[in-house]
Design goal:
By secondary structure, the protein is mainly alpha-helical. 83% of the residues lie in helices and 0% in strands. The chain has 7 helices and no strands.
């Protein structure tokens, strides 16, 4: 029962401060799931993120579901997912009810502009950390560049870019093994 409560409280805390979606969740996931709890490795978190991007739904929710499932099976997946969604749902409903009358206020507009900047900084920090910890060879640099180019400039979906990177990684591994 204690592990279910830990799953619930960990993801509820993350959900309470989850501005900016799944990518903004990465620093919190790293701190809570890897460093504090030891529930997953950095490589596993990256795998969950990659799979979460390729599956229907929100990245943060999918990642919580994968981690909950790893820890405590289907019930753990349900607890992690629901706890991640519970607090933000309550907060959004409350804030929406309050802000409805103040939405065009300069204070509210500037506050949300500030939040966007902070979330952008979190995402950049996550990308730099992921790059440093996972790009360990020239092949990794090539795959990362290919993924960036295909999504940013060629406007391919992340699913196709991820599948292409997986296939190229597989081929590189086969060549390296020979």
């Amino acid at each position: 029962m204690k592990e279910y409560f830990e799953l619930f409280s960990s993801f509820a805390r993350m959900g309470a401060v989850l501005f900016g979606g799944g990518y903004a969740m990465l620093p919190m996931l790293t701190r809570e799931i890897i460093e504090k709890r030891g529930w997953a490795t950095e490589e596993e978190i990256l795998d969950y993120f990659a799979i979460a991007q390729c599956t229907p739904g929100v990245i943060a929710v999918n990642t919580a579901t994968f981690i909950g499932n790893k820890r405590k099976g289907v019930l753990g997946a349900a607890i992690a997912t629901l706890s991640l969604l519970l607090v933000p749902t309550i907060l959004i409903l409350t804030i929406a009810a309050i802000l409805k009358n103040f939405w065009s206020s300069p204070v509210v507009i500037h506050a949300f502009n500030g939040i966007r900047v902070a979330v952008s900084a979190l995402i950049v920090m996550s990308v730099i950390k992921l790059f440093k910890s996972n790009i360990k060879s020239w092949q990794g640099i090539v795959l990362a560049a290919m993924g960036f180019i295909t999504v940013a400039f060629l406007k391919w979906t992340p699913i196709v870019a991820t599948l292409l990177a997986a296939f190229c990684g597989y081929l590189m591994g086969r060549v390296k093994a020979k």
